[in-house]
Amino acid sequence: MAYWLLKTEPGDYCWDDLIRDKGTLWDGVRNYQARNNLRKMKKGDLCFIYHSVGPKEIVGIARVTKEAYQDPTTADEAWVCVDIKPAKRLKKAIHLSDIKADKVLSQMALVKNSRLSVCPVTKKEWDKGNRWKFNNPEYR
Length: 140
Prior knowledge:
- By secondary structure, the protein is α+β, with helices and mostly antiparallel strands.
- The protein has helices spanning 15-21, 32-40, 96-101, 109-112, 123-135, and strands at 3-8, 24-26, 46-51, 57-70, 80-95, 118-121.
- The protein has a six-stranded mixed β-sheet.
- Strand 3 and strand 4 form a beta hairpin.
- The longest helix is centred in the last third of the chain and has 13 residues, at 123-135.
């Protein structure tokens, strides 16, 4: 299993939309590196959903339900999308400032390559991010 981070602008499509729709195709990606990451995704992989506008924060976890296929929003065969469904909402969103302040999470592609809309997440980063709320003194 691999781990990913998918960025979305909540004004266009947010976590609550994903919950309402019970899943969606992750389309409209027009960056080659992000597209290559979509192509690497496998059914069952897990993704952090990150709101990139407003409070910049990881808000939930989604699961890949269908691997890369032709993005229906373009006739250009270079672009692909994947299908995802919501897995769980985080009890407390993880803000970008907290990510940058954390020794492990500050190494994420989200921080190192902030313009990339589909980022790989290492197992160590995933585990830390998924447990973060329990490791943060605010939650003890």
